[in-house]
Amino acid sequence: GKWVYTFGDGKADGKSSMRDLLGGKGANLAEMANLGLPVPPGFTIPTSVCTYFYANGKTYPKELQAQVERALDHVGKLTGKSFGDGENPLLVSVRSGARASMPGMMDTVLNLGLNDETVEALALKSGDRRFAYDSYRRFITMYSDVVLGLEHHHFEEILDGYKDSKGYTLDTDLDADDWVALVGQYKEAVAREIGQDFPQDPHAQLWGAIGAVFSSWMNARAVTYRRLHDIPESWGTAVNIQAMVFGNMGETSATGVAFTRNPSTGESRLYGEFLINAQGEDVVAGIRTPQDITEHARLESGSDKASMEAAMPEAFQELTRIYTLLEKHYRDMQDMEFTVEQGKLWMLQTRGGKRTAKAALRIAVELANEGLINKQDAISRIEPGSLDQLLHPTIDPHAKRDVIATGLPASPGAASGEIVFSSDEAAKLQADGRKVILVRIETSPEDIHGMHASEGILTTRGGMTSHAAVVARGMGKPCVSGCGSIRVDYGRGTMTVGSRTFKTGDIITIDGSIGQVLAGRMPMIEPELSGDFTTLMGWADQVRKLKVRVNADTPVDARTAIKFGAEGIGLCRTEHMFFEETRIRTVREMILAEDEQARRAALAKLLPMQRADFVELFEIMEGLPVTIRLLDPPLHEFLPHSHAEIEEVARAMNADPRRLADRARDLSEFNPMLGFRGCRLAIAYPEIAEMQARAIFEAAVETEKRTGKAVGLEVMVPLIATRAEFDLVKARIDATAHAVLRETGAKLTYQVGTMIELPRACLMAGDVAETAEFFSFGTNDLTQTTFGISRDDAASFLGTYIEKGIFAVDPFVSVDRDGVGELVKIGVERGRKTRPTLKVGICGEHGGDPASVAFCHEIGLDYVSCSPYRVPIARLAAAQAAL
Ligand code: PEP
Ligand code: MG
Questions:
Q1: Interface confidence (ipTM) of the complex
Q2: Does Magnesium count among this protein's keywords (predicted)?
């Protein structure tokens, strides 16, 4: 078998399309080599070896060792060096690289191949003993951490102690002899802590690092990351071994990270950070504050440190040439890592750059306008769920800001919450329903769960490419990073800025769009949607087949949804109008009524209120379809339960508290979700349905009279299992319509249809469609009744089901295609067979879930209906499904 793929010197065994085998990093290194770009030569051990490793008791294919040796020789030839050689040693980096970027995995090991002998050779060759020993101590630190399991802090403590004893403050105060002395101390620490000497044999070092990469695929952080990002375990990781180039060879050397476009805003301009005389992870680690790459960015940031453009003009020119070429080649914004070694630029990585939703939209629209991609590509480049980021509130610009500190605008949006200083605490509070801001000196992959649980993230260290910044952007959470004026004391649970101290539990607000940290909770306002958003959504609308409606019960919801492009109301849950505070007393009178007459009297009081609601909705929707559903929840939901509540309500209603309590008890059910609800209410108490129908038709007549425009009226009956139920309620609705039209002399067209949310209704859909004019699948109840899992009680065991792999995703979030989906399909087919013009939609929560929207497209529904903020998500998901 072929277990090693080489690259370098203008050619490679691999290419970018071989990502599954070579991992993202390996495939793109090969591609860059093929493009003739300056890539240090090296080779990739593919993911197939990882698969072999785990399938064969952590052993390697037998040919692997020889193939690695041969590849090392090849790299040696290209660089004129030799691995393990005492005079001219080849040093390598070892990096993991899975198919998808996985920040939870093994970090990098640099300078591998150094030992007590080769370090001297490096010193001689480079003429820089300080550089050689600095590289060696970095190697010992990294190797010990990721291969030997000896954490960084052991070495940091030694370094700090050494600096104290010498009166140094900065690492740059240390000279060659200092590093020599420290290397000795580091090696002693290794021997002491792990009971064996630091490995001196470069081959042993290399196999140790390779084994560590493959083993890291199963470490806890990686497992968590995969779970959060739906990455299959079977993918495995590749290992990339590459000749070292040195960014720490003095003032003409540097290392950096650059994006071809701004990952926060999408602006088409090279953007990034670099550090002179530094190596590898120094930029990302955020230990030193990096410098800007372009002069433009330096002027904007007001930094007094030279930009790369000014400090290294030749390398900068080369970087400019390469980034332009890479972006054209990949037809997407790239995130690149590079090193400058004594003035020469080397490319270490390129990949599609992570970006905010705002940047993603701008980049997609601009790439399409530049002709690099077409509109379809642009549509497919945006993750529908990410639009959520754009639709969230920002701080009211008129609000007075009490700015505590300013850091970097690492991830846009604003959020308020209680300060927490640990990720475990964040997760704990969030589980209790609290909103928190995670405050850390810096974050690491161990903080992922805490970042997930937080409204926003604040760090005191680290740049725009620090862990906190990158991860927060990916999660769509606001983040302010590198807020250096804040001092965090984990022990005390405080953060201090100047004379002000904030403690755990204090409320702060962060504004990730401008990098501010503010005291207290700030008023937020609805977001303005950008021109790019409108453009892209316009393209999406041109290709999608599904209509998108909204589930809206209030004028505010309806207006928001119109702004987001809703094409009608797919579900108006009228009970939400019953719940309204000032009406609840009348609703209770209605429920407590002794006889029909008393009930009708109470309903008569509710009628004008409902009518006014409907008039408002009809006016807002301006002739678009509006589906109004008759009362659905069990009546007991409207009654008070606790003793104190009953007393209070009885007093207010001037009713007998004992009677109220009796009635509440009468109405209580063992299983209300399967009890006296849905159309069963309308059947037992037809006067309720009649009042609602009257309110609806009178409102429609009134609106049409006032606006001169037809109302798109659809009346919907909930939770039917039989056609007989539907027919009975429909007869009442039609009779009421006739009465209203006779009384008003008006004309009106309307449809009466039903929710399909019980398995029997799906199976009997052919029969139901004889009289029902439209169907709307209520997949919340259909999921509940198909699985026999209570919607309201599922939380206690669903987590276990997902952990055990019984469910890949929560079936209440994403439709279960195999079971529930099959019932929907049957319902659609049988319904349309009876009535070819039958209009069919879905209004369960699934209507706003991209995967479920795709399913609805596939089975030919007419529309999906979802909550207002998910309307754009559904529009985009519907377009992607149609591509
Ligand atoms: C449903 O069951 O899917 C539905 C939309 O109705 P509700 O959530 O109000 O029961
Ligand atoms: Mg329902």
A1: 0.99
A2: yes
